[in-house]
Amino acid sequence: MNSGESMSSWIRAVPNAILGVPIYLPYSTSMQEEGSLMVTHRWVLTAFLLAAAVGWACGVGAAEDDTDWASKQVDLKKGDHIIFFGDSLTELAGREEPKSHVTKGYVRIVREALERKHPDKDLKVDWVATGGHTVPDLLKRVDKDVIAKKPTIVVIQIGCNDARRIPKERFQAGLEELIDRLQKAEIQVIQCSLTSVGEKHDGTNRDDAALEAFAVVAREVAKAKKVPLNDLRKAFVEYWKKNNPDNKPSGFLTYDGNHFNDAGHKFVAEQMLKKFK
Questions:
Q1: By CB atoms within 10 Å of each CB, which of 18, 192, 243, 249 scores lowest?
Q2: Arithmetic mean of pLDDT, 157-173
Q3: Prior bond of 228 cis (ω within 30°)
Q4: Which of 147, 130, 158 is nearest to 218 (CA)?
């Protein structure tokens, strides 16, 4: 092999070793000529630096993608105003209804727990929710009913209605827009995955396939938007596997498979409290 062939092989090998794909660079066929060799060296150096930069950027991106947003917490500051934003699950938590099944909703449990833990922070905990709502409904009211109240933290708890009514793509786009609008108002967002429509632990509830698919969307959106994730769906399924050996459809965290009973409100409050420092 002559010197020209050796140099040409090396030129291709350097970026190929770094990026895993061959990159072909122009070079003089007269490699032994001093001028051409100097030009070739400059091409090689440029290619090497470019490949290294691309490799570094890919490495940084991979590191960011590996962040476990389900483990992220929010540091509470003096005067923080938290709003739980959602559908009937949050509305009934706020109203503490129906009285036959609920004595204390998860919103009040969270409020009282945070007041005990941070008595000097003057925290405010509130809710905005309407039964039957989906992400498109939340988008319609977020400016007037949420952002106008100037919260510093908003916990989005939505999805069970969406999974049974709207396409997954619309849910994702709506959730992304909702978070964007809240973040534009400099509000810290915590995203929850949906909970349940049926408490069987083996995936045989009628809507389980859709619920799981929408839970994945919530996880992916939280990751893409870099917001803490409260993975309620995962927590619920793990709870049923431990506490529902007979695979019953309700009566554990809910009174009807969907809406929380006292045990459910306590459990959800525990999951919510894990997101705050």
A1: 243
A2: 98
A3: no
A4: 158
- Chain-centroid distance of CA 39 in Å reads 49
Architecture of domain 69-273: 3-Layer(aba) Sandwich (3.40)
Q: Which of 179, 181, 183, 144 is nearest to 158 (CA)?
A: 179
Query: Domain spans of the chain?
Result: 3-65, 69-273
Cα 270 from chain centroid?
19
Length of the chain: 277
Paired tokens of 120: 């000097």
CB 117 within 8 A of CB 156: no
Residue with tokens 């919510």: 272
Residue 18: which pLDDT band, with cuts at 50, 70 and 90? Answer: very low
Q: Are 45 and 14 in contact (CB under 8 A)?
A: no
Across the chain, where does the E strand assignment appear? Answer: 81-86, 124-129, 153-157, 188-192, 229-230
- What distance in Å separates the CA atoms of residue 85 and residue 120, rounded to the nearest whole number? 25
Higher-confidence position of 61 and 250? 250
- For 247, left (φ over 0), alpha (ψ -120 to 50), or beta? left
Q: Cis omega before residue 98 (within 30°)?
A: yes
Rounded distance between C-alpha atoms, residue 72 and residue 74, angstroms: 7
> What type of residue is 64?
E
* 217, amino acid identity: V
- For the residues 237-260, what does the mean pLDDT come to? 98
- Identify the pLDDT of residue 151: 98
**Residue ranges with strand state E in 103-206:** 124-129, 153-157, 188-192
- pLDDT the model gives residue 42: 55
Q: What is the DSSP letter of 276?
A: B
The CA distance from 257 to 247, in Å, is: 12
Compute φ and ψ for 124, nearest 5 degrees: -120, 130
